[in-house]
Amino acid sequence: MDLNILNPKIQEFINSNIGFSVSNLALQKNPFSGLDWIQILNQIEAKTKAKTKLPTWFATKNIIYPSKISVEQTSSEKTALYKSSIITGESLIDLTGGFGIDDYYFAQNLKSVVHCEINPALSAIVQHNYVQLNSINIDCQTGDSIEIITRLNKKWDWIYIDPSRRNDSKGKVFMLKDCLPNVPENLNIYFNYSNSILLKTAPLLDISAGLTELSHVKAIHIVALENEVKELLWELHKDYSGTISMKTVNILKTKTEQFEFVLGENEGVTNYTVPQEFLYEPNSAIMKSGGFEEVGLFYDLNKLHKHSHLYTNSSLVSFPGRIFEIEKSISYNKTDMKAFLEGKKINITTRNFPDSVENIRKKWKIKEGGNQYCFFTTDVNDNKIVLICKKI
């Protein structure tokens, strides 16, 4: 970590170039002798990325950033804040500290947090940044996490782990055993030091596959940000063998949508019907959870088709997802498409439909945008239909 990067003139240069093309800046001559030009460019690129993702870090003076990839891979502040709401007690050890966003928010609710990071340079950067952020109850430890937790030899209220995929696992099916650290292999060791583990995985992980690798799962949190699933959070509790709660969270600018159900306990019967007055599209967190029957039953909605995962009814209800008023339902045929949609400017979504959005636009000369929304889908009678809607 080169503290010369904190020179006021260099910091002023970095801040004045936020948002500019680093590729173009790289062609210029380094205006600061004695400091690597690549290092300065990296600060510009990483800080640009942090502007919306990490506003607290962005707004704090003398923050040092690691590589752009580290900033890209770290939790956003909004998802870190959600994670901190899960944790209770007084202490936590993070075995995969990284850039330390999660630990900063854990430390808001706990007396003590330990940040473990195997990369000495990254650990030094994080420790420096915590001083700037006035986060005084986080202890940064450098080295292998198993060695650190063994050496410290104490009981923690929580262990937090965010494993990363090994380089040689590219192209393979995403399995936890292919990550570092190997959580399934080390689970018994971890439970020697805490009764509660919070595990973060990428949304790429199949939930059923995760359940085959992990034991003692009490809850799974599916966290989306602006309707894009960002992470899966697995609560593991020592000796737990009961039901598993599936908690879906979609963090939006003005609200947070939440829906919860118990995995494998749905005993209701879904009703199917032709489109009625309103159309409901579940958010991405619910779609990832697989709770298609549960959400329909909870909100007393009817499904259009077993595989469409679109819902309808004749009265408006609050719902965790997008809601539309159906203005018209047409058959997907040449006559109706030419009469109602060809050449128009429309937002298109496909659900359980044989053609892609791109092909539909090309075939019917439909432009993107406007205030009208069309769902190309399949109804209860297996007919291909188009729902022309207005968003509510």
TrEMBL record:
InterPro entries, A to Z: PG_1098_Fer (IPR054168), SAM-dependent_MTases_sf (IPR029063), Thump-like (IPR041497)
Keyword check for Transport:
no
| One Gene Ontology MF term | methyltransferase activity
> Which residue ranges does the record assign to the PG-1098 ferredoxin-like domain?
278-320
Which UniProt key words apply to this protein? Answer: Methyltransferase, Transferase
Q: Which SUPFAM superfamilies match?
A: S-adenosyl-L-methionine-dependent methyltransferases
The protein in question is named Class I SAM-dependent methyltransferase
The answer, when asked if Signal is one of the entry's keywords, is no
Q: Which part of the chain is the THUMP-like domain?
A: 321-391
UniProt-listed GO biological process terms: methylation
